[in-house]
Write a structure and sequence with these properties.
It holds the Pfam family Shikimate_dh_N. Keywords: Amino-acid biosynthesis, Aromatic amino acid biosynthesis, NADP, Oxidoreductase. This is Shikimate dehydrogenase. There is one protein chain. Helix content is about 40%, strand content about 20%. The protein has 12 helices and 12 strands. Strand 11, helix 9 and strand 12 form a beta-alpha-beta unit. Helix 1 crosses helix 10, helix 5 packs across helix 6 and helix 10 runs antiparallel to helix 12.
């Protein structure tokens, strides 16, 4: 049996244990996946938590809000996605040291292409410039984005992302909520990478009155799957991409890293779409829209 984990804040309802254990079972590989939740823990020590997992024989761990930037900084070895994005959501306890990877980046590209094919991302409003926001912004560079408008309360964080995107050749501008409301009807994409809408952070991150059928809308939040933003997008006739898709595709990519020494990618590939179908049915299409 291999032991994996997830370190984050407010993750009690995460479906990651189910995904990794379910995928492992499909492949004949027993997996135990544990949660390390910092919510309510005074002076939570992230590096110490990672070291404890390693000492207890875990193969690796996923990392989520608010530790993705710390995970990248803590690593001895940084994969291509981490070098590009600057954050990490996957840590592997390699013999050579702590290795960081970013599967939010690859997972978003896969999720977008699965739903929208070769449709150019166009001009996109990005809400939130934290760990997942940086990953999605960089991924948009692979999806024919023409401009990224960054809406982020932390001015320094927004400016740092804007500068980094410009260095990659991606047009980016930091904007205010008022500018977002004014420009929204003329843009094509809206991506929420802030925690607003999550069960622990209820609400809607923007004024949705400008949404229309010309838009595609993604919300990284998947608990609940039907966020206020996605509900408003549906009512406006926009195309939507659920955070459930990112959850599945990034999770599978992380699983590939965790099991690279014992399972080839070719063996994992046939299980991806059935896994996605399962979670879409459970979290998105459920008649009761029950909380996972």
């Amino acid at each position: 049996m291999i032991k994996l984990g997830l370190v984050g804040e407010g993750i009690a309802k995460s479906q990651s244990p189910d995904l990794h254990e379910r995928l492992g079972a499909s492949l004949g590989l027993p997996v135990r996946y544990d949660l390390v939740d910092s919510l309510g823990v005074a002076d939570f020590d992230f590096p110490a938590a990672i070291q404890t997992l390693r000492a207890e024989g875990y193969l690796g761990t996923n990392v989520t809000f608010p530790f993705k930037e710390k995970a990248a900084q803590l690593a001895d070895i940084r994969g291509e996605g981490v070098l590009r994005v600057g954050t990490a959501n996957t840590l592997l306890f390699d013999a050579e040291g702590l290795r960081a990877e970013n599967t939010d980046y690859t997972g978003f590209i896969s999720a977008y292409r699965h739903s929208f094919g070769d449709q150019p991302a166009g001009e996109v409003l990005l809400i939130g410039a934290g760990g997942v926001g940086r990953a999605v912004a960089c991924a948009l560079g692979e999806l024919a984005v023409s401009h990224v408008y960054i809406l982020e309360r932390d001015t320094m964080r927004a400016e740092n992302l804007s500068r980094d995107l410009s260095t990659m050749g991606i047009n980016a501008t930091c904007i205010t909520p008022e500018q977002a409301q004014q420009g929204l009807p003329n843009w094509q994409g809206v991506v929420n990478c802030s925690p607003i809408g999550h069960i622990n952070h209820p609400g809607c991150p923007i004024d949705t009155s400008g949404l229309g059928s010309q838009h595609w809308v993604f919300d990284a939040v998947y608990i609940p799957a039907h966020t206020e933003l996605l509900n408003a997008a549906d009512q406006a006739g926009a195309k939507t991409l659920s955070g459930v898709d990112l959850f599945v595709f990034q999770g599978v990519d992380a699983f590939r890293f965790f099991t690279a020494s014992c399972i080839t990618p070719e063996k994992i590939d046939p299980h991806v779409m059935p896994l996605r179908t399962h979670y879409i049915e459970q979290l998105v299409n459920s008649p009761t829209r029950a909380m996972p």
